[in-house]
Amino acid sequence: MRQAPTTLDDTPLPLQILDTEGRILAVNASWELFTGYSASEVTGLLYSELIPAEELADFRRNMDTLLEHGHLDGSPCHVRGRDEAVREVLLFARLTEGENSTLTKCILLDITTLREAERSLAESDARFRSIFELAPSPIVIHDGREVVVANDAAARFLRYEDASALTGVAIQKLVHPDSAPGIAERIKRMMSEDWTAPIVEETYLRADGSPVSAETIASPLTVSGQRLIHVLALDLTEQKKAQAALAESELRFRCLFEASADAVVVHDGTHVCFANPEALTQFGLAKGTDVDGYDVAMFVHPDSRSLVMGRISALLAGQPQHSPVEIKLSRVDGTTWEAEAVSSMITLGGETVIQTTFRDLTDRKRTERELALYREELERLVEERTRSLSQARADLTAITAIVGRTIEMRDPYTAGHQLRVAQLSTAIARAMGLEESRVMALEVAARMHDVGKVLVPAEILSKPTVLTDIEFELVKSHAQAGYDIVASAELHDPIAEIVYQHHERLDGSGYPRGLSAERLLPESRILMVADVFEAMASHRPYRPSLGEAAALDELEDGRGTRFDTEVVDICAALIKDGFEFSEAQ
């Protein structure tokens, strides 16, 4: 029998002797090795000085317990060594009576490594628990009869309130009858063997009794001596929906494919997969011919083969070919036909193939040839009638000026009105950035916008007093009359429509048609502002000139309602910047 230690150093564990105040009286060699301090360094030192500050409260409670009960049996404590490392220990202490005082003998049992292992195990368990609970895929662990634990994803998948609601649920309640035999056989084998079941698709039952499909993989595991089975599932709900949608899409494609009036061929770039009835007809094949495996090139005329194969190569390389191309094709009897072809990549049955649609150009080509003959004859006729076109264009300005002067001769009080309106209109249009061709069209329209007044009696136009309602209605008719006159010239530009709209207003209050903003041409918006400004700023038979300020006030009053905001602002800016009318014709 081993004898009890007779000296401090005979004790293999760190040992210290303290007085009742907690002062160190002696330590053994194991204590010195454990703390790194020598006996001479710590003799007379308060043991509390080796305790981390945050642990002092626990140390004092230990001392109070020792003094009260006379012993400590494994109380946790902490000691800071010479290397400043804090070690966790269990204190085993007894009060003993010495010659002159009461002493405390304490043995320290180092549990630092144990505690670290416990913390590591706890952290590992927490990580596993976190992964298990937060895993996006359903996970169930069962004992072969009922669920032991499940994660939230499994609860959502099976439509249970939460994961805890699945605990204790019988496995047979979760399995669809169609899948029950296979699952039972696998469970039986895993409960008796270290065998992992392969991935298999099965049908399960949700809490509401509805079926749901999943791919599952199951494997046995042992926890605390208990045999369990770990099941991981992959929800196939969305996949099943996608498959159903794909099947429906392919069915729709098949219906459109079969009924298409154009020839459609599906191929892999080298060989034909299948073709619709119209394609069989166009290529001279009998109805119902199985074209699977036919060489694509045999249907392409040599003249177009290089172009076609180049476009196919580009498609297969990932370069979309959206624009159609005209190609020459060959029938099985050797005859040729022309078609407009367009190809695109499609997915059918999980495979990516090329769909090419051919639109027969036979009728169109015939029409084009006929049109070419008509065009030649037309060009001959046009050439005869357009030899003097340049001179006619040069005369256009002079003609509009003559028309303007004709109106002014009947209405002497508005002499120069149309010319000045044209000058202001073109200045506004250029400031707005309109294309020059539109500016020129606007100038022509402005210089003859009152041409319809030729149908208004001259005495009304030159009447020095306010017009009666009937007279005013006659004057208003000049917009319609002007349109009719200009439209009869069949000009390419919308000159007639600009003339027609020059008395309309954005809010629909104008005449003759009461058009509102969305129907008014930009040129008409400019012309109406220039017309109002010039009319108010000039002398009239029934009143003297109102002046530029009054004209601008009138435009500002209608800005955004009757008149276009941008046009009014630019007109006002031009006038304030010193715009001047010219009398040049």
Verbal overview:
The chain has four domains: 8-116, 2-Layer Sandwich (Beta-Lactamase), CATH 3.30.450; 135-235, PAS domain (Beta-Lactamase, 2-Layer Sandwich), CATH 3.30.450; 264-364, PAS domain (Beta-Lactamase), CATH 3.30.450; 397-576, Hypothetical protein af1432. With 585 residues, it is α+β, with helices and mostly antiparallel strands. The protein starts with 14 loop residues before the first strand and ends in a 9-residue tail after the last helix. Helix 13 packs across helix 19 (522-537). The radius of gyration is 51 Å and the shape is elongated. The chain contains 21 helices and 15 strands. 26% of the residues are buried. The protein has a five-stranded antiparallel β-sheet with strand order 2-1-5-4-3, with helices on both faces.
Attribute tags:
585 residues; Beta-Lactamase; 5-stranded antiparallel sheet; 21 helices; disordered N terminus
Short description:
This protein has 585 residues and is of the alpha+beta class.
Helix and strand topology:
Layout: E1 15-19, E2 24-27, H1 29-35, H2 39-42, H3 56-69, E3 71-80, E4 86-97, E5 102-110, H4 112-134, E6 139-142, E7 147-150, H5 152-158, H6 171-174, H7 180-192, E8 197-205, E9 211-223, E10 226-235, H8 237-259, E11 263-267, E12 272-275, H9 277-282, H10 302-316, E13 325-330, E14 336-348, E15 351-360, H11 362-385, H12 389-410, H13 417-432, H14 436-447, H15 458-461, H16 469-476, H17 478-487, H18 495-501, H19 522-537, H20 548-557, H21 565-576
Helix pairs in contact: 13-14, 13-19, 13-21, 14-18, 17-18, 18-19, 19-20, 20-21
